[in-house]
Amino acid sequence: MKDREAKKIPDREALPPAWEEKLRSGKVKVTPNRRRVLGRFLDADAPWTLKSLHRALNEGEACELSSVYRALSAFRTAGLLEEFRLPGKRETYYSLLRPSAGRRGQGKSSGHDHHHHHIVCQDCGTVSHLDVCVPTALLGRVEDASGFRVTEHHLEFKGLCGACR
Amino acid sequence: MKDREAKKIPDREALPPAWEEKLRSGKVKVTPNRRRVLGRFLDADAPWTLKSLHRALNEGEACELSSVYRALSAFRTAGLLEEFRLPGKRETYYSLLRPSAGRRGQGKSSGHDHHHHHIVCQDCGTVSHLDVCVPTALLGRVEDASGFRVTEHHLEFKGLCGACR
DNA sequence: GATGCAAATGCAAGCTACTTGCATCTAGGA
DNA sequence: TCCTAGATGCAAGTAGCTTGCATTTGCATC
Fold first, then answer.
1. Which one of A1, A13, B46, B107 has the largest count of C-beta atoms within 10 Å of its C-beta?
2. B60 has pLDDT over 90
3. In this predicted structure, what is the pLDDT of residue A58?
């Protein structure tokens, strides 16, 4: 948690080219606000809520809640973010959909399909990412049992984090 | 879906004794309102939202939204209901936690622990129950990867139902 | 470099889905 | 039957978005 050198980027003037490209190809205009929003996701690979993001951004220059909201919607439409909800929490969470680059290509490589799942500490509320996913066999059983064709799944865990145990 | 004989109970005067017992042991007073609320869950083994339940109840005698809300909270505290949220939906859903009776006892038999998971049709919005669950092996991997002790999990699927395909 | 327009922004108002306070009523034990 | 903790109805309050509108701005084009 120490900030070495110029590591603690307050607000970026530019995003990594890959991401700027992604925005443009998603027909999302690149503005200072949006750079700052996306920059937060790139800095902290954690789930953000509309409000937590708004608070974090306004430690710097002010930025309207509704603009953050619209940025999130735009990013989601463009396939850069996924949205999810947690049992017992009221807010909607967002997290970055990184392209499934270095993974052993076990899915269709459709560009960005590396979603992930989450675990929440029932004591302190910390939310962490998980790299595990639903086994294919289970998906098959779900389709058989329900008659649905499954297109998406969300898996949330609740428990006690290392610190709270 | 046909209603045979007196199968279509409008509002019950009494709940199955097992459930009345459960309420009492959970320190929940049994009132006409609460019988009607719980009755709906017993009649239709589907997820309800506060509002859908309120609407359903008020086809009969009126019953305040806030009372339904408080009944749901009480039932949840008593361990009769579980609450969950679905991605893309705003409301909180509730479903009955039936005691894990006839199952091959693969969990600790703690009274009621037969939770289940859900699949939502992305077209028509229908929500169905699923009888599949997260494999124990996956839970182990989650604990190892995160350092958390897992106490709960929720698994939601999205897809196309038989009718919408 | 100047221009035009679709899209983004700020501000304010509106909406949905709860959630709570309070006076009154009632289930259920004494 | 009586008492009291807890349930109810009604109304007001709150959180978390969501939208409308006038203004500004990114960026493709000239």
1. B46
2. no
3. 86
